[in-house]
DNA sequence: CCCCCCCC
């Protein structure tokens, strides 16, 4: 990067003249403690160079002090002084002197990026001639773009006015928040759907794209107006010329795109399709890691993976606990040359359309690590890229390994085996005493366990409520006593409602007892009837109570979820029934016999 | 300015 300083600007300014937006280089700074007239805080004096002269009487406005402390105004930094004033001060031994107060600056290049003194500037001495040679016009006030080949650079930021023309572009890796004059030529490697949000800070919509060129990759996000303006125009795999986005520090928590920054579209953002030859722009870059290294990574970390889909499960349907919406998912098993396997979860259409029968190679960019039952798995997200049999060397290599070696080997699994009946990790059989001893539910996420237990008591009070009739909302409605029922969540009234159950049940097993909560579907199993029927008999107290009495002393295999909750500074284990199946006595006995044999060492010695 | 991404 080369920068042209506004040579001669200092002598003009110090002679009382004006130069618009001069570009200067900082060559030093000095703290003058507690000298700000307004705040009494520190002030900084800067040694600035216009490439021809040095001047150490530039003072920095105190509101810009943080730019010094943050290092943005370190030595060799090139700045554009966008606002300044000069004034005369009386200096006791040197007479009157003009000083420059810098009110606002634009950082064009950080000192660490520039790294040297530009030109050979000399101090302005008393009586330095004001060189009037070029002063009818102000000195060049803009940095000259490196090796410009177009007319893009005459404004403060490039305008992409002529699509397809030869544009001098910048590598993605050179982008930073300190330089806004760039054009990149980049391929869109992924594009998210438009998503809306609403929170305390406001609402809006957005989408993100990932961009790549030969130097690197970066994520760009368009909000609101820009979202509408650009969404339809942008196509994955196409190459665009892009300029005038703002850059900010990327949060690695949300992407593993290799860039410290991410871009945000602005009103001025230009993005136009590139009609030149784009074969030199790469299509997608992965940062694959071996599957076995997942074990050492944190939950929720984002990773790029490649593996052979050794097996694939069925599509499963489930109801999201957060949204009440139906979700479709499919778990597949990925293996690679580290001879390790991990479960990968596909969602929605990707889950439904996936065909694993030919054991394809799958490449994932930006997959998310999940943890369940002590195992690790990877889940696809909206922002993930998912490729089946990609035409890349890693995929071909993996294919060769799998067909020759991997397919016949047993891989060590990082994931809990949810498909295996009786698999210790997935079932997690526990008595209620063991649940306490093992402090289940004390982690950040809930713990799941399975228990054989008997219903001791079902509370009938407040067990039935009138709920919102819409499929996805089960909120309690308010009876308006005029034939209408109001749902606060939907913010509307309905002429009808549906009955739903929310049961408190005391369960007992051989070790103790535990109060649990059963929602609608499970509650109907436990009560042996439907919520509608119970609602219909609500006014017949005897019949109503009878249902609850009859539920007692039945034994089930319960799938339970435990999470510690805090009420008025008191911790209480909240246990919810996820599933209740009538006890299968044969299976239960078989398991007990196996456990007894293990405890007695009978199984081992019998071998 | 989002940052939710679901389930066992």
Automatic annotation (TrEMBL):
Enumerate the residue ranges of region (Disordered). 120-166
Q: Where is the Replication protein A OB domain?
A: 291-389
Q: Does the keyword Disulfide bond apply?
A: no
Q: Which UniProt keywords apply?
A: DNA replication, DNA-binding, Metal-binding, Nucleus, Zinc, Zinc-finger
Q: Name one GO cellular component term.
A: nucleus
The primary site where this protein sits is nucleus
Q: List the GO biological process terms.
A: DNA recombination; DNA repair; DNA replication
State the InterPro entries in the record: Euk_RPA1_DBD_C (IPR047192), NA-bd_OB-fold (IPR012340), Rep_factor-A_C (IPR013955), Rep_factor-A_N (IPR007199), REPA_OB_2 (IPR031657), Rfa1 (IPR004591), RFA1B/D_OB_1st (IPR003871)
Q: Name one GO molecular function term.
A: DNA binding
Q: Where is the signal peptide?
A: none
In the record, the note on similarity to other proteins reads: Belongs to the replication factor A protein 1 family.
Q: How does it assemble?
A: Component of the heterotrimeric canonical replication protein A complex (RPA).
NCBIfam families hit by this protein: rpa1 (TIGR00617)
Q: According to its UniProt entry, what is the function of this protein? A: As part of the heterotrimeric replication protein A complex (RPA/RP-A), binds and stabilizes single-stranded DNA intermediates, that form during DNA replication or upon DNA stress. It prevents their reannealing and in parallel, recruits and activates different proteins and complexes involved in DNA metabolism. Thereby, it plays an essential role both in DNA replication and the cellular response to DNA damage.
Name of this protein? Replication protein A subunit
């Amino acid at each position: 990067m080369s920068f042209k300083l506004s040579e001669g600007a200092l002598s003009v300014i110090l002679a009382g003249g004006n130069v618009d937006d001069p570009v200067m280089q900082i060559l030093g700074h000095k703290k003058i403690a507690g000298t700000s007239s307004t705040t009494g805080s520190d002030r900084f004096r800067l040694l600035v160079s216009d490439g021809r002269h040095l001047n150490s009487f530039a003072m920095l406005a105190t509101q810009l002090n943080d730019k010094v402390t943050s290092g943005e105004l370190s030595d060799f930094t090139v700045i554009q002084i966008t606002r300044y004033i000069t004034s005369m001060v009386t200096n006791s031994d040197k007479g009157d002197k003009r000083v420059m107060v810098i009110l606002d600056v634009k950082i064009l290049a950080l000192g660490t990026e520039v790294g040297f003194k530009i030109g050979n500037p000399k101090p302005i001495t008393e009586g330095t001639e004001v060189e009037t040679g070029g002063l009818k016009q102000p000195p060049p006030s803009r940095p000259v773009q490196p090796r410009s080949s177009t007319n893009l650079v005459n404004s403060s930021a490039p305008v992409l006015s002529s699509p397809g023309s030869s544009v001098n572009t910048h590598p993605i890796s050179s982008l930073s928040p300190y330089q806004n004059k760039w054009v990149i030529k980049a391929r869109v490697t992924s594009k998210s759907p438009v998503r809306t949000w609403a929170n305390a800070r406001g609402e809006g919509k957005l989408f993100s794209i990932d961009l790549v060129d030969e130097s690197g990759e970066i994520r760009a996000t368009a909000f609101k107006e820009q979202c509408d303006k650009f969404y339809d125009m942008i196509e994955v795999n196409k190459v665009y010329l892009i300029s005038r986005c703002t850059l900010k520090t990327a949060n690695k928590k949300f992407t593993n795109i290799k860039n410290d920054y991410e871009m945000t579209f602005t009103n001025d953002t230009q993005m136009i399709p590139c009609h030149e030859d784009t074969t030199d722009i790469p299509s997608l870059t992965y940062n694959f890691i071996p599957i076995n290294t997942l074990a050492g990574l944190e939950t929720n970390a984002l990773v790029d993976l490649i593996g052979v889909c050794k097996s694939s499960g069925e599509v499963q349907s489930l109801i999201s606990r957060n949204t009440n919406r139906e979700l479709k998912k499919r778990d597949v098993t990925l293996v690679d040359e580290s001879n390790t396997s991990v479960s990968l979860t596909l969602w929605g259409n990707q889950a439904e359309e996936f065909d694993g029968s030919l054991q394809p190679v799958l490449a994932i960019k930006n997959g998310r690590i999940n943890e369940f039952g002590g195992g690790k798995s990877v889940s696809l997200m909206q922002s993930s890229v998912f490729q089946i049999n990609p035409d890349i060397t890693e995929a071909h290599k993996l294919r060769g390994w799998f067909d020759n070696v991997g397919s016949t080997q047993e891989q060590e699994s990082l994931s809990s085996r949810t498909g295996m009946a009786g698999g210790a990790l997935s079932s997690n059989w526990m008595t209620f005493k063991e649940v306490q001893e093992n402090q289940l539910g004390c982690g950040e996420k809930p713990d799941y366990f399975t228990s054989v237990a008997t219903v001791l008591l079902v509370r009938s009070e407040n067990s039935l409520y009138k709920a919102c009739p819409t499929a996805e909302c089960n909120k309690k409605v308010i009876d308006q006593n005029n034939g209408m029922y109001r749902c606060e969540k939907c913010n509307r009234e309905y002429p009808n409602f549906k009955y739903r159950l929310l049961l408190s049940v005391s369960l007992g097993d051989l070790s103790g007892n535990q109060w649990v909560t059963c929602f609608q579907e499970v509650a109907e199993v436990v009560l042996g009837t439907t919520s509608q029927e119970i609602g219909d008999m609500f006014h017949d107290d005897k019949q109503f109570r009878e249902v609850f009495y009859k539920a007692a002393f039945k034994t089930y295999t319960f799938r339970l979820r435990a999470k510690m909750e805090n009420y008025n500074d008191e911790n209480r284990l909240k246990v919810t029934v996820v599933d209740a199946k009538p006890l299968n006595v044969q299976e239960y006995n078989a398991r007990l016999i196996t456990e007894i044999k293990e405890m007695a060492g009978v199984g081992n010695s019998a071998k």
